[in-house]
Amino acid sequence: MSYEPKRFDFSIPVRINLYSDTQTRPTRAMKQAMLDADMGDEQGGSDPSVWALCDKAAALMGKEAAMFLPSGTMCNQVALATHCRPGDEVLAHVDAHIQGAEAGGPGAIAGVMVRGLPGPRGQFTAETLEAAITPVSRYAPPQRLVEVEQTANKGGGTVWSVQALNEVAAVAHRHGLLVHMDGARLMNAAVALGVPASEIVAGCDTVWLDFTKGLGAPLGAVLAGSREFIGEAWRWKQRLGGSMRQGGMNAAACSYALDHHVERLAEDHANARSLARGLAQIEGITVEEPETNLVFFSTEGTGLTAADLAARLRPHGVMFSISDTYRGRACLHLDVSAAQVEEAIALFRQAVNR
Ligand SMILES: *Cc1c(COP(=O)(O)O)cnc(C)c1O
Fold first, then answer.
1. Quick check: CB of 21 below 6 Å from ligand 1?
2. Which residue in 254, 349, 352 sits closest to 33, CA to CA?
3. Which fold has domain 16-25+264-352?
4. pLDDT at res. 294
5. CATH for 37-260?
6. Fewer C-beta neighbours within 10 Å, C or N terminus of the chain?
7. Residue 354 CA, ligand 1 centroid: distance in Å
8. CA dihedral 55, 57, 62, 63 (to 10 degrees)
9. Whose CA is closest to atom 8 on ligand 1?
């Protein structure tokens, strides 16, 4: 068995990339910021651009301290391993990224069990969490951490309200559990709610945000929490090989993204709504109402699987991702314009009706 990704077919150009907001390319201005970055040795504490990014991101999220890591996946793994001991239980939505998309990292690295909580739109309520709390006993795994995803990716890019988050955090804290947020698309939520990120994550003990999704940087994520937590987390960062050297070049791209690519996420959300409206008018396609930059749709009424439809669109340079047999996901981001959305709708219509 090989787990290596299949090499992309570069002979067919991609014109409208709705596959993922991870596939954005750094803009020329972002690359210039990278070229101009002051650098040092990140792992030796002497890279000024990394420190600047950490301070900026910690302030944005209203936390005492932050660390720069290569990916969001590593942020989750470092956080779980720092918060928990082997045998502990983490409670997260059944569709959470840590459950299904991190190669079993929670079991393999932190040694924790993850209990999947049910709930529509990738979210669970405080009542659902309360019902999953087990009495402390010799038998049950020690429940240590609650994990929430903002926005809930497989839930449809849905936004947790501040109130729902605070209710969940209150239940967790009342039972002595900590709260960790996978904030891969936290800034999409902040823009959609019109609420500062720090307010959204006030109830979370730790939180990270990704720079390689809609923010458009080539690499990097920042994990934030108390000074004590970040201090301890550094051992896991080092252990997993997440301590970098001239990280400043990438940190500069992330700082640039915070300065220039946050407010514009509103354009992606508007484009998502346009795409959803257009796709919903195609016979046989049903669309989940988008809340941010992700548009999930069903192809079932067309008789085509999501993969069938993707294969028909690929020669036209249009790509989306497949979430399930009949469920597709189209992602809006800074490399997709409003005009391209209109073009994509026309090509989808043509592909379905072919
Ligand atoms: C993309 C994503 C991650 C992982 O982030 P990487 O930077 O790709 O490792 C984690 N959680 C969610 C919800 C994501 O969408």
1. no
2. 254
3. Aspartate Aminotransferase, domain 1 (3.90.1150)
4. 98
5. 3.40.640.10
6. N
7. 35
8. -60
9. 72
Selection from 226, 258, 249 nearest residue 63 by Cα: 226
| Ligand 1 atom at shortest distance from the alpha carbon of 213 | 1
CA of 66 to the centre of ligand 1 (A): 18
CA-nearest residue, atom 1 of ligand 1:
184
Query: Does ligand 1 have an atom closer than 6 angstroms to the CB of 323?
Result: no
Distance linking the first and last C-alpha atoms of the chain: 36
Mutational test site, ligand 1, from 73, 292, 333, max ligand atoms within 8 Å of CB: 73
Q: Please tell me the pTM assigned to this model.
A: 0.97
Do residues 21 and 331 lie in contact, with contact meaning Cβ atoms separated by under 8 Å?
A: yes
Q: Is 321 in the pocket of ligand 1 (CB under 6 A)?
A: no
Same CATH fold assignment for domains 16-25+264-352 and 37-260: no
Mean pLDDT by 10 residues, the chain (354 residues): 94 96 96 98 98 98 98 98 98 98 98 98 98 97 98 97 98 98 98 98 98 97 98 98 98 98 98 98 98 98 98 98 97 98 98 94
Distance 39 CA to ligand 1 centre (A): 26
Closest CA to 258 of 37, 60, 75, 72: 60
User: Ligand 1 centroid vs 214 CA: distance in angstroms?
Assistant: 11
Residue 73 has what pLDDT?
98
Q: Which atom of ligand 1 is nearest to the CA of 182?
A: 11
Beta carbon of 184 within 6 Å of any ligand 1 atom: yes
Q: Exposed, middle or buried, 354 (CB in 10 Å: 0-12/13-18/19+)?
A: exposed
Domain spans, the chain: 16-25+264-352, 37-260
**DSSP-derived secondary structure for 219-260:** S-EEEEE-HHHHHHHHHHHHHTT---SSTHHHHHHHHHHHHH
Ligand 1 centroid–CA 45 distance in Å is 26
Identify whether 151 is preceded by a cis peptide bond (ω within 30 of 0). yes
Q: Residues 90-130: pLDDT tens digits?
A: 999 999 999 999 999 999 999 999 999 999 999 999 999 99
Task: Check: CB of residue 24 under 8 Å from CB of residue 334.
Answer: yes
154 lines ligand 1 (CB under 6 A): no
